[in-house]
Amino acid sequence: MASNQPAPETSSPFRPAAFGDENTTRGEWNPTEDSLRPVRGRHRVAKQRGLARSSTVLGVGVIAAVGAGGMATAQGKPPVSISLPDSVKDNLPDPSSLPGVGAFMSGGSDADDTTAVTASAPLTSAGITATEAEQGATDAGEALRARILQQAEQQQSGAEAEARAAEESAAAEQAAKEAAKQQSAAEAKAAAEKKAAEEAAKAKAEAERLAKLAASYSLPTSSYTITSTFGQAGSLWSSGQHTGLDFAAPTGTPVKAVHGGTVKSAGWSGSYGYRTVLELDDGTEIWYCHQSSMDVTAGQRVNTGDTIGRVGATGNVTGPHLHLEVHTADGSGIDPMSWLRSKGLTV
Which CATH architecture best describes the domain 225-342? Predict the structure, then answer.
C-alpha cells in the first residue's frame, strides 16, 4: 500500500531541476519542499526520469552498435535532425562517459576531427577486404555486388573456357579421325598399288620366263584344228573319256618334238596306231599317236622342233589327226593344253 509519509532523506548533494525551469541552479535538496507532493507521484516522476535516461542511453548504444556492425549505412543520405525536449536533454548523461560514443558526440576539436573522419567514411565497412579497400570500395553493399559480379564473370569465363576446350577436343578428335581415315585410304591405295605392281612384275617375270621357255619348246604340229580336248566324255573312247588333245590336220603334216629329249619307243600300239613316245629330261613323256609314218627310232636323241613323224589316221580314228598325250614321271596323264601353255606356247 502506498504511504503518505514523507520520503526519507537522501545523501545526494543535489537534485535535478524541475521540468521547464531552465534558470534554476542546482543546489542541495530540500526534503520539505519535495514532501509537499505525494510520495506516489514523486516516485512515478523519478521512475519516468530514470526510464527516460535509460531509454536514451540504450538508444544511443543501439545506434552506435548498428553503425559499427555494418547493418546500415547513411552514406549518400541527407542528415536528419533530432530534437529533444529540454527536460530530457538536461537529464542526458555526459557523452564523454559513454565508451565509444563520447568522441562521436563530443563538441571539442578532437571530436570535430573524429566526427569529420567518421562522416567521411561509411557507417559500415563490414565485409570489405583489404584489396577492395585499396581499390576504393567503401560500401559493403557495393563491394558485395562487385564481388558477385566478379564471381559471375569468373564462372562465365570458366564455362566459356570449358566450352572452348570441349570444342577444341571435339575438333581434334574429328581431325584425328579424318587423318586416320585418310591414312587408311592412303595405305589401302599404296597396298593396292604395291599389289598391282607386284602382280605386274610377276606377270612380266612369268612372260619373260615363258618367252625363254617358248624358245626351247615347240607346238607338235602346224595348220591344225583342235577337235577334242582332255577329259571330254564320249562313247568313242574305251575309257569313256578322252585322254589327250586332238590336232586335226591333213595326212602327212610333219609332227615335231615339243622339246629336247630321247625317243623311248617308236612303233605300232593297237588303237593308238603308230605311236612315238618321247621322254624329256625331267621324266615327262609325250605320246604322238595315229601317225602315218615315223622318222625316229627308240634311243634316238632329238632336239626341239625336230620332225619325228607324220600326221595320219592309223588305229582307232575317224579321220587324220595327231592324238597327243602328256604323262608325268609317275605315269599320270595330265591336260596337254595346260602343259603346253605352261611352257609359253599358245595353243
Answer: Distorted Sandwich (2.70)
